[in-house]
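quick one: adenosine-5'-diphosphate-glucose bound model?
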Amino acid sequence: MKRVLAIILGGGAGTRLYPLTKMRAKPAVPLAGKYRLIDIPVSNCINSEIYQIYVLTQFNSASLNRHLSRSYTFTGFNDGFVEVLAAQQTPENTNWFQGTADAVRQYLSLFEECNVDEFLILSGDHLYRMDYSKFVQRHQETNADITISVVPMDERRASDFGLMKIDSAGRVIDFSEKPKGDALTEMRVDTSALGLTPEDARQNPYIASMGIYVFKKEILIKVLKESLERTDFGKEVIPDAATKHNVQAYLFNGYWEDIGTIESFYDANMALTQQPLPPFSFYDEKAPIYTRPRYLPPTKLLDCNIKESLIAEGCILKECSINHSVVGVRTRIESGCLIEDTMIMGADYYQPLAERQSGTMIYSAADVPLGIGKDTIIRRAIIDKNARIGCNVRIVNKDNVQEAERENLGFFIRSGIVVVLKGASIPDEMVI
Ligand SMILES: Nc1ncnc2c1ncn2[C@@H]1O[C@H](COP(=O)(O)OP(=O)(O)O[C@H]2O[C@H](CO)[C@@H](O)[C@H](O)[C@H]2O)[C@@H](O)[C@H]1O
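yep, here:
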């Protein structure tokens, strides 16, 4: 796939995943204990032999650059790269990216210079494994101007997506972005035409866009240059293109989740612990998900009771119970803790022993040692990196709150899930 350039949409203002995006660009949000969101589309590209990859982000965080430069260094024998392009002020443009199409438009002159035939536009917040070479091949075979990857969708979630109608040759003849009410019903189709069984077609009567596209190079340039007021692919560019160009649908058969909200991100991480078969597995020798090599020591488990959980490398876990949880790199959990239905992202460094011991007499929240202190109970939470959680803390959402912003206390509650902020200190005995 030498003649394909991948452009990954790495996130706008980052409000949907806030507070995980408080201190980092969305593609740098940690996933599954040792990866970051950006590892998914980048690994899919590498496994599909696409090595020229740009990542568009609204802001350029140090952790994203560090991660990409340490993870994806291609050898000098090919022209591969993974590079971040951040929204920037220029004399011609003083605005941030106004939407997905605008983000691509602002770097169009750079993309125009690339010696490729197709642009592959991807999202930075999806969990799936896909061979893009089949997607591109289908695009070429149908001589499409644009090809949209699609999945069948059920009634409950359909209005969160761009929906389409297609003709018998797979050509998109109508596209509606996130329709509601009558407009939603109007987009119902018989998906058995896509090869679904009658039962599956009844349960999934919509064709949803995955928000990932293959564009012929000249078509992307044309549609972005012809009407500058169109700033979003799903809302404006694609619906308009469907009336003028050969826009094709490519059916993706496999697990795919948009994990761009706190709830869907949490659910996707929890689903990784599902037994016997999680819907997505990081273990696939033929198509691995890559990340940064860290050379961490093996995890130490001292008399722990662990069920249906993922434990990353370099952790030290003492006499604790962990159930249905994801525990990230370098996590330290002291004795007597109970962790359930929780994602702990881990730590970026080990705290020196002397510093941890000085924390045995805790005078302020800042003195709480890194990790999770003795006898603490955590349920249905996300604990961001480098958090310091004291002893005998309860993070259980005791009042069953759905939404709360307690930034000064070190946590948020989003969709009933407690999110402890990166680097936050939660003092001994605190109950959330
Ligand atoms: N200003 C910006 N700069 C850089 N990146 C940005 C950006 N704004 C958003 N992004 C990124 O672009 C991707 C698409 O995000 P959007 O919020 O625009 O679309 P949404 O996911 O709602 O719908 C889209 O994806 C769903 C599938 O999830 C489709 O059904 C629907 O038609 C399609 O519009 C995400 O990865 C997001 O982080």
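The mean pLDDT is 93.
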